[in-house]
Amino acid sequence: MLPFLFRKVLNSFLVLLGVVGIVFVLFFVLLPADPARLTMGQRSDAKSLENIRKELYLDKPVYLQFLFYLNDLSPLAIHGNTKEDIEKYDYTKLFSISNQNNVVLKAPYLRRSYQSKKEVSSMLLDAFPGTFILAGLAIFFATVFGILFGIIAALKKGTWVDTSVIFTSVLGISAPSFFAGILIAYVFGFLLRNYTGLSIVSPMWDYDPFQGRHLILKSLILPVFTLSIRPLAIIVQITRSAMLDVLSQDYIRTAYAKGLSKKAVVWKHALRNALNPVITSVSGWFAELLAGSFFIEYIFGWKGIGKITVDALNKFDFPVVMGSVLFTAFIFIVMNILVDVMYGIVDPRIKK
Amino acid sequence: MHSDITLLDIQNLSIDFQIEKNTTHAIQTISFALHAGKTLALVGESGSGKSVTALSILKLLSTPPAQYVNGEIFFQTKNKERIDLLQLDEEALRNIRGNEIGFIFQEPMTSLNPLMRCGLQVAESIRLHQKCTKDKAREKTIALFEEVKLPNPKEIFYRYPHELSGGQKQRVMIAMAISCNPTLLIADEPTTALDVTVQKTILELLKELQRKNGMAILFITHDLNLVKHFSDDVMVMYQGKCVEKQDTKSLFAYPQHPYTRGLLACRPDKNHRVKYLKTVAEIVATNPEENKLEENNWIADTAFATRIENINKSTPLFVLQDVQIWYPTNRSFIGKTNAWYTAVNGVNLNIHEGETMGLVGESGCGKTSIGKAIVKLTDITSGQIMYKGKSIADLNKADTQQYRRDVQLIFQDPYSSLNPRISIGEAIQEPMHVHGIHPAKNRKEKTIELLNKVGLSAEHYHRYPHEFSGGQRQRICIARALALQSTFLICDESVSALDVSVQAQVLNLLVALRDEFNLTYLFISHDIGVVKHISDHVAVMQKGLIVEMNDAENLFKHPSQLYTQELLQSQY
Q: Looking at CA atoms only, how far is residue B302 from chain A in angstroms?
């Protein structure tokens, strides 16, 4: 198990390095825009332009720029001894290698937004809890009901129950989230507002002058539901087909021949065998939702990763875009490792 | 024991399968009775309805498509009640399943839940019917594992099915089936998927358990010879009907129905070498009095001896010198192999032109690896394979092409070795196209010629594999192998998946083709009767080594090695 994990982590590290390389090439080498000008905005005097170029290492050759970028991202890095650097990177010194330079430990430094001058990492961390709660609840809801409906459809194969589950799920897959989001917000948050007590714009936090901010659970309902529609629909289909496959296996007949009830056969013998493809799709979707879902966040007025990213794109705020791309890649990689471990737990046949 | 009690009494049972608009009558008014403590064998080829009959007793057929059209299945419970199983409600039926009637299935590989520890699968059944605690069920399971002679019962309790061998899995299945002391055990081809030597031990185990527990056994098999010493009565089924029902002794001594005679006769004869195997259809068609022809069919010992002599005199086509084949089993951290499995451990073998070399042995003995190495599907670790005096590893590109043309492989499973989306005409033509033999416009003609050779006709050219039976498909595979005018064919268990009557047809075809084109065969099989029939020389393999090799007559008459004797005994 441990060597397996170690190999996985090593692999993932290389993947991440590749992503960093591609991101760097895309935004610093191929992009036909001058980051210094973007940072400056409307003001543009030659002097400050020069300063900014220096700060962003734009006066250096490309390979050095890349090394500096890597150094910024790496938790184990070499940084200067100066007060500016200490403030900028907020590092813990390990040991010094020269008068000016220390080997340090720090959180990855994603640089600052061109626009707001805020640190990108703090912007992302700020937005992440909202996205995480939304995505987590949505995927939980989708998994529980997806598996349930999938099993029901498989057991009632060929009946009207099966047909209507399939029909609904196809509908769910084909409805784009901006359309479903608007429709649901309009119907439940506006037309039926008096009955549901929900509103269209449902921010996650409520700011109370005395108690500070606190979570509004009610406002989770509509966005979570909307967000879970597509994963739900797909999990239903995957569970159904995996179940149908498993239910025709010989060991299911063995279980019946033992005298087990249908319920015991389905839950104890069939479901676990049908789980692997479901895990694959659940984890994929979860990672995708964690990367933010712009339309849902936009429609329901949430400030999540998706919204930050799209806003930044609009304003050519590339550090933020780069940061969120790296962040997303990181989430996918972590998810992948988790899923590999899960496979091993669910199915003892899978070799480590 | 108490043989006066009728345990199972099936009367006029008929079952239909309704698939879309088509109704097949899978079973048509079958009646039979099984007395307590006795063994009844249901024998028939695939599609004869024997498995359907067995599954219907516990209502394990899925409805739809199955429909119980007619009939009763009376069963005497442990409380001496006589009930009709078909009329029982779901809950009462569950109480019978596993508790009063145990079931063993054909495929031990797929009949156990792969994600559940073996012991727990047995304990589950005990806990269900005997309402005991977890620990008590565990104790009982381990005791059962001991009873079915599993090694290290305590360890096996916690093993997963994939960590056991096929025979061990079948023992776990048996333990599960007898866990609640059933009065009836239904065994649906319990040994078909196992090696011959394992087959024998499993049958002995069943017999022993039957004596100890006094249970009745309903034994389903396609192999009539298997039940000769095993069952008290035999019922032969054909296309959903019972054709003959007798006690075992009389059935083997005086088979009444032509079909039964056919089943008995289409197996290779133990005592005589024959030129030609009769198929069931032919035997059914002929009059039993016309047995005169039989002797014309025998090959005299002297004729065979001359043939062997001639073969031994010729120069060998293939020479295998100390061939070793290792497979990596474990890789180190950086991907370097640090553990090997030795599949073939130094094999020397000569194959002469025009002969059939039989290769027998249990699964895992390395016989398939040798076949693969010869067609260069796997690399040999050390040693040499010489073809016409040249090592096949040193062939240049053009020679390799020619070599691949000369040497072809016919696979075991005709169902999965044909692409379902390619018509058989194209499938046969494909190798011609790849190797550029025959001008393009002549290829179709050649294909039809080949189809005729293997007993099919031009009208089959545009059909797809699913339209053919297993035997026909295997003949298509043979035609495909012949398309390259190959001279050497490797038949890897090529007739093992086929029914006995179809087996006879395919074997006859192989012999006819050998004589017509002077082909050379390497015939790999675990079925000793078949190997003896077709081979000139036979090599016996065990654990990667050839333990004995001789001509087919002498090897079977005077086996010198213990292992060969064991194999022969377990087969006949």
A: 51
User: Which whole number is the average pLDDT over B150-155?
Assistant: 85
| Predicted local distance difference test score (pLDDT) of residue B418 | 84
Express the helix, strand and coil content of chain A in percent, nearest 5 each.
70, 5, 25
B107 touches chain A (CB under 8 A): yes
How far is A228 from B145, CA to CA, in rounded Å?
48
Residue B97: CB atoms within 10 A of its CB come to: 26
Strands annotated E in B353-403: 356-360, 382-387, 390-391
Distance from CA of A139 to the nearest CA of B (A): 26
- Cα–Cα distance for residue pair B413/A158, rounded to 1 Å: 32
Nearest chain A residue to B121, by CA: A255
Tell the residue number behind the tokens 């069919």, with chain if given: B297
Cα B76 to Cα A279: distance, rounded to the nearest angstrom: 47
CB A37 within 8 A of CB A49: yes
Q: Which of B91, B113, B159, B331 to mutate to test the interface with A (most CBs of A within 10 A)?
A: B113
Residue A271: pLDDT over 80: yes
* Contact (Cβ atoms closer than 8 angstroms) between residue A151 and residue A239: yes
- Judged by CB atoms closer than 8 Å, whether chains meet at B128 and A257 is answered as no
- Identify the closest residue of chain A to B56 by CA–CA distance: A257
CA distances from B27 to B101, B104, B200, B566 (A): 21, 21, 30, 39
Q: Is B170 on the interface with A (CB under 8 A)?
A: no
Cis status of the peptide bond prior to B268, with omega within 30 of 0: no
A272: nearest CB among B105, B115, B129:
B115
CA atoms within 13 A on the CB side of B516: 12
ipTM: 0.75
Tokens standing for B127? 């806990």
Half-sphere exposure of B396 (CA within 13 A, CB side): 1
Strands, sheet with B101-104, edge to edge from the N-terminal-most edge strand: B101-104, B184-188, B216-221, B39-43, B233-238, B241-247
Pairing relationship of beta strands B537-542 and B101-104 according to DSSP bridges: unpaired
What percent of chain B has pLDDT above 90? 1
**Own/partner pairs, B309-312, CB within 8 angstroms, 24+ separation:** B311/B352, B311/B354, B311/B355, B311/B536, B311/B537, B312/B352
What's the CA gap between B16 and B76, in Å, rounded?
Answer: 26
Q: What residues of A are in contact with residue B333 (Cβ under 8 Å)?
A: 3, 7
- DSSP label at A49? H
What is the 8-class DSSP label of residue B97? B
- pTM for the predicted model, two decimal places: 0.76
B16 is written with which tokens? Answer: 């239909």
Rounded Cα–Cα distance for residues B407 and B490 (Å): 8
Pick from B96, B113, B125: CB nearest A269: B113
At B1, the pLDDT band (50, 70, 90 cuts) reads: very low
The single-letter code of the amino acid at B433 is: H
Q: Is residue A193 within 8 Å of residue A218, measured between CB atoms?
A: no
User: Quick count: other Cβ atoms within 10 Å of Cβ A178?
Assistant: 14
**pLDDT of A92-116, one tens digit each?**
877 887 777 888 888 888 888 877 8
Start-to-end Cα distance in chain B: 28
Report d(CA A218, CA A196) in Å as an integer: 10
CB A305 within 8 A of CB A291: yes
Contacts of B408 (CB under 8 A, 6+ apart): B375, B481, B482, B484, B486, B488, B489, B490
The tens digit of pLDDT for each residue in B197-239 reads: 778 888 888 888 888 888 889 998 887 777 888 888 889 888 8
